[in-house]
Amino acid sequence: MSSEVVEDEISSFFESSPPLKNMDGIIKKLNRFIKLNSSSRGENHQSDWREEDRVCVTSGGTTVPLEQRCVRYIDNFSSGNRGAASTENFVKAGYAVIFLYRRGTCQPYCRSLPDDPFLECFEFRDKRNIQVHASHLEAVKLAVMDHQAAVADGRLLKLPFSTIYEYLQMLRLIATALKDVGSCSMFYLAAAVSDFYVPWESMTEHKIESGSGPLDIRLAQVPKMLSILRSNWAPNAFCISFKLETDSKILIEKATKALQKYKVHAVVASELSTRKEEVVVVSSSGNVVVRRDCDKPDESIVEYNLIRLIVDRHSTYIKESHS
Ligand code: PMT
């Protein structure tokens, strides 16, 4: 497909999308965050903190509404675990992170808390006071401290989305806001983005009637945004895309094709059932398998070594683009 046709498809996708709620508020938050991280910072900041490094981490799955006043939607499996764990490690590496996440999915610093923290973590001391249950004290303390430090230090901005329409409009806003940061910015696109959707104008307004028998819905293809992100929205940013397959036999071939087609700097490939154990980073310099190591506390999640590798590659990219 020619680049003009792709651009036309992308324009018509945005033109027919329902407008983003609170767009001005999101732009304000973004600009404030980016400005904060480009002004000179106080002495209490870590010495290895490179104030210009920023990453947009996308996380969780996009939904596809079936009705304009949405009651039903199509969803996918993504838990947001990879995006949340990666965000923590990017913050640790000194990055300012824009965490574009699906509402209700896994959050940075919350991964070690029980699933239902309010009910599980707290107990009444007396009628007026509640306290953290001793068995969860360490996990809660660490989660609260690390999260507050990242936010107070201006290193974490969280922006939620639900639908494919919201996700792609917000990604475009972020890319546009980061354009001037150039090679020091990174896109780490771990979200599971819907490939098919119901165009807004062909969607019924009200709840689909259930009494008229089986339902036929025609889904249109969501245009791939990677191409325009690379060519237009943020051409100098370092760009990491992801590829997930359930058939390991085609995984590397698909990731390699995506690397060439979208001209991203690396593709992180994983297979559904082993995605928490290992990933393969596919790039023009070869393929690197990254595994977790349960014997080492830090490395017990695959994202620890993954982010170290990606940060290292990004540093080389920045140096090369400044030379
Ligand atoms: O959330 P977890 O449960 O921890 O799981 C993490 C993960 C497995 C979801 C994540 O690691 C992952 O692999 N995400 C990408 C899933 C995928 O295969 O996406 P895709 O093949 O549909 O898209 C590939 C790339 O194209 C993605 O980086 C996506 O951002 C991009 N894309 C997709 C659709 C679209 N319309 N435009 C795009 O640019």
Automatic annotation (TrEMBL):
SUPFAM superfamilies (UniProt xref): CoaB-like
A Pfam family reported for this protein in Swiss-Prot or TrEMBL: DFP
Domain DNA/pantothenate metabolism flavoprotein C-terminal: 52-101, 174-277
Entry-linked Gene3D superfamilies: CoaB-like (3.40.50.10300)
Signal peptide (from-to): none
Top-level taxon in the UniProt lineage: Eukaryota
Family listed: Belongs to the PPC synthetase family.
Protein name, as recorded: Phosphopantothenate--cysteine ligase 2-like isoform X1
UniProt lineage: Eukaryota, Viridiplantae, Streptophyta, Embryophyta, Tracheophyta
